Amino acid sequence: MIEARTSDIAELGQQLRVDAVRASARAGSGHPTSSMSAADLMAGLLAGHLHYDFEHPHLPGNDRLVFSKGHASPLLYAMLHAAGAIDEEHLLTYRKLGSDLEGHPTPRLPWVDVATGSLGQGLPIGVGMALGARLSGSPARIWVLCGDGEIAEGSMWEAFAAAADFGLGNLCAIVDVNRLGQTGPTRYEWDTGAYAAQIGGFGWHTIEIDGHDPAEIDQAYAEAEHQDTPTVILAKTRKGRGVAAAEDKEGLHGKPLDESEKAVVELGGVREARVRVNPPRSSEPRRSQPSRPVARPTFSVGGKAATRDGFGAALEALGDANPDVVVLDGEVADSTRTAAFRKAFPNRFFECYIAEQQMIGAAVGLQTQGWIPYASTFAAFLTRAHDFLRMAAIGGADLRVVGSHAGVSIGADGPSQMGLEDLAMFRALWRSVVLYPCDANQCAHLTATMADLPGISYLRTTRAETPVIYRGDELFPVGGSRTLAGSAHDRAVIVAAGITVSESLSAAERLADEGIPVRVIDAYSIKPLDAATIRQAAADTGRVLTVEDHWPVGGLGDAVLEAVAGQIPDVRFHKLAVRGMPGSAGPAEQLAAAGIDAAAIVRATQRLVA
């Protein structure tokens, strides 16, 4: 049984290298050389400083290990083998169809909390994990294995800044400085001092070591465990360590070793040692308080209110009802209306500043700790975090994302502030829900509903005030819609959402005066769409008009078209959307210029029924 002695750590490092080489060779692909450089680092962590119960991976007292350099997955799987979590047969299924040992780690494995592999994400997520552990009162530590190449990612520097600002002494980044990236040397090669100067400038405790010296590795981990600030261990290593034909050689990234059997012999042969991993730092269950029904705010029918106001008021009520709800914002809390939550529950509000990737990364990390995160900023700026959202979907994360100031209706701020591609972006995510309320009461209900939704849910809110048309006690199920106008004699159906619902109702009144009865559907749930209701309306009228404050690609119009196309014969379809680049103007002027106001809807409907 391997324990935390330097001789044992060296031996375990060789075993991890051998298993990484074997798994990659059997698969015919993988990243063994990237695994070999970090093998001693992970041997020292596994045998001496990681506190983890592999039979109960979700215990709150377990440390968390994130492989930000997810391409080194053979090393992670070799660690699982050494810990007795998987057997030899399982290890050698690496990268095979149906295996949970994927090319880059995902939570298909119970010991993996988040999907990694898109570089620069593990540390921002680790920040969220460390926040979540501290908020829970857990003594668990968060360890993140990073590659030196990914230090070039801007998201890493967002994480360095955030971790220091939050004072996360329970977070340790382990940087495998092996000098080589995919196509050649990294920016600073083996100059760990250059990394230390920059990261230390953010307020991190920095340690520079020989990443192949077991004693230095062990001492560095012990030092990290006694810091009040986040620690980075900058470990100088050699890619392909232990195999002369591969060590510090370019051109071998992402390739199994040639003559892998000879490499195994050179590394000392196959071992079957098992590691005695330290038990969790605490066996206490996560402290939880029961939630209560949400006392949703209500807005008076006939009045006007912005949906962002409905969101903010409902979020505060939700925070009072459910102590597991946490909120993150990108330094626009007064605009997104999360400021009310911040004032009421300051310990559960996290200011992420203008760092949207870090904001979403932290939300991903927080939800691994049992928290229910809502992350909010302007819809336009969520595009910066799209890769984090994509990876969160791959990892099965449960997130609630709210984008305010969507569409041209924000007015004079101009196109840089207008979210016009957000619906398409979120609809494209796996297992996502996309909601676009038209009034404050509807928004308040959907805000509360999101707390219980799995996967990634997106709520689009509006800056401008809109008419309150629904009562405060009405319910809006995900996947539903509301038919707001209609008769047996309708000649067309207008499908709208959000800001265009009231415009469509105004258009319907004008059209009725002209003897053109139309049906108006509020498709507040864009994904999943209430396809059955829309198909029936299309069959009844033979004409469908969609209208949205969004680019014409990927939004409401395309969702409706997908539902109708090939299902209802002889349907005439037209889509109103923002087709020209907006400038600065007032909200009403913007809607008119974009051709999505009531007058434009009347004209389009007249043409459709002609």
Arithmetic mean of pLDDT: 96
Rg, rounded, reads 27 Å
The profile of the biggest β sheet is:
7 strands, mixed
Quickly count the helices.
Answer: 22
Q: Name the assembly state.
A: single chain
Strand content: 15-25%
Number of strand segments: 19
Mass-distribution shape: elongated
Class by alpha and beta content:
alpha/beta
Percent helix: 25-40%
Distance between the termini: 83 Å
- Poorly predicted parts: none
Strand order of the largest sheet: 8-7-9-10-12-11-17
Structural topology:
Elements: H1 6-27, H2 32-37, H3 39-49, E1 64-67, H4 73-82, H5 88-91, H6 122-136, E2 142-147, H7 154-166, E3 171-177, H8 192-200, E4 205-210, H9 214-224, E5 231-236, H10 260-266, E6 304-306, H11 307-321, E7 325-329, H12 333-336, H13 339-344, E8 349-351, H14 356-368, E9 372-378, H15 386-394, E10 399-404, H16 422-427, E11 432-435, H17 440-450, E12 456-460, E13 465-467, E14 482-485, E15 492-496, H18 499-513, E16 518-522, E17 525-527, H19 531-541, E18 543-547, H20 556-564, E19 572-576, H21 587-594, H22 598-609
Question: Can you give keywords for this protein?
Answer:
single chain; 610 residues; elongated; thiamine pyrophosphate; thiamine pyrophosphate binding; transketolase activity; Transketolase-like_Pyr-bd; EC 2.2.1.1
